[in-house]
Amino acid sequence: MALFLLLLLVAVVLGFIGALAEGLFYLLIIGAVVLIADLVIVGYRLRRRRHRLR
Questions:
Q1: Could you tell me how far CA 18 lies from the centroid of its own chain?
Q2: Among 12, 14, 21, 54, which one is least packed by beta carbons within 10 Å?
Q3: Alpha-carbon distance 37 to 51, whole Å?
Q4: What is the pTM of this model?
Q5: In terms of C-beta density within 10 A (0-12 exposed, 13-18 middle, 19 or more buried), how is residue 21 classed?
Q6: Which residues, other chains included, contact 34 with Cβ-Cβ below 8 Å and sequence gap of 6+?
């Protein structure tokens, strides 16, 4: 859970910097990619945990 929150925080910070700073649009893109990767990792962990309980 700590990894999820850390990656979420990094994605938000990169997104804000990329959106607000002129010429740093690539940071917004990197933030979006980190957010998507974070959601995929959490989805995989939740799915794996659900299968283990059966």
A1: 15
A2: 54
A3: 21
A4: 0.72
A5: exposed
A6: 7, 10, 11, 14
